[in-house]
Design goal:
This protein has 300 residues and is an alpha/beta fold. The protein starts with a strand and ends with a helix. The chain contains 15 helices and five strands. 26% of the residues are buried.
Length: 300
């Protein structure tokens, strides 16, 4: 009988395990499951014998466990189906799974757009008529928390279509987390309302105002350097900016987007306002109000 390993995102791996075993006539609720300190050769050996009715099986969860080769060989040679949950197996274990049985990898989407695509696909699979903006809203609210998204989709199945974004927002009742780059982007395009909304979301989610100010200082230092780069060299690519600034491509990209809307005079004025706000916070003025005033000033 095969050794079947499932890796990747915990939620997706568990789901793949259930579906794979069900296709083989096995119900996960009927199988013993071992995890933690119970994952030993002594504990698992008695469970590897076939039942009176044919194929049996066992589920072994390797979370927090470092199995040795002898233990894995025991599982691979079992006369019953052995399903192994191994979220992040090293290459040596993947090689063993593929050589001695099967390996099902379920990587999780991370970027918002990819998560939204996963939401839309899952909604279609369950027959939910979810519009694109509603899928994007769920992706923004939950990020890569697929378990949380699946729970919300289960609730939405009880509602009559169409499942518009407004309806989904009312049911879920959560606001997307703030984005400090989006906040600065809105400010530099003259959208104080949107910028302040992003700031308030960040503060409401528990972000420390002083850390937010530190983020503003750091991000605007990148912006200022991008302004200087574009003045010296003309059009600068994200890759060049990342290399010259010594940062990863994403912050370089966002800093460039802001820098392209500014010139030296404007960036100097913004840096002066940021310095004044930083000093005001350190002198004891209300940090939330000071930040909000700064964001409005950066928007004009």
């Amino acid at each position: 009988m095969p050794l079947i390993a499932f890796s990747g995102n915990r939620f997706l791996a568990e789901e793949a395990l259930r579906e794979t075993l069900a296709a083989r006539g096995l119900n996960v609720r009927d199988l013993p499951r071992l995890g933690g300190e119970d994952v030993t050769a002594e504990t698992v050996a008695p469970l590897l014998a076939p039942s009176l009715f044919g194929d049996g099986g066992v589920i072994v969860d390797l979370a927090g466990v470092k199995p040795d080769k002898a233990f894995l060989d025991l599982l691979a040679s079992a006369p019953v189906t052995v399903a192994v949950l191994d979220e992040t197996p090293p290459a040596t274990r993947v090689k063993l799974y593929e050589a001695r049985g099967e390996h099902h990898s379920s990587p999780a989407p991370q970027k918002t757009g990819d998560v939204a695509g996963w939401v839309a696909q899952r909604a279609r699979k369950t027959g939910l008529k979810l519009d694109r903006d509603a899928a994007l809203y769920l992706a923004e609210v939950f990020g890569p928390d697929l378990t949380g998204i699946a729970g919300e989709l289960n609730k939405l199945e009880l509602l009559d279509p169409p499942l518009t974004t407004d309806l989904v927002r009312r049911v879920v009742g959560r606001e997307p987390p703030g984005d400090s780059f989006a906040m600065l982007g809105a400010a530099t395009t003259g959208k104080p309302g949107e910028a302040v909304t992003q700031l308030r979301r960040l503060l409401a989610s528990g972000e420390d105002p002083f850390k937010l100010m530190g983020a503003v200082v750091w991000q605007y230092s990148l912006v200022a350097r991008c302004v200087a780069l574009t003045q010296e060299e003309g059009r600068v690519t994200e890759a060049v900016a990342a290399q010259r600034l010594g940062v990863k491509p994403y912050p370089a990209k966002k800093a460039l987007e802001v820098a392209r809307r500014l010139n030296e005079a404007k960036i100097r004025a913004h840096l002066s306002r940021i310095l004044d706000a930083d000093l005001a916070m350190k002198r004891g003025l209300d940090p939330g109000a000071t930040l909000e005033r700064l964001i409005v000033q950066l928007s004009v």
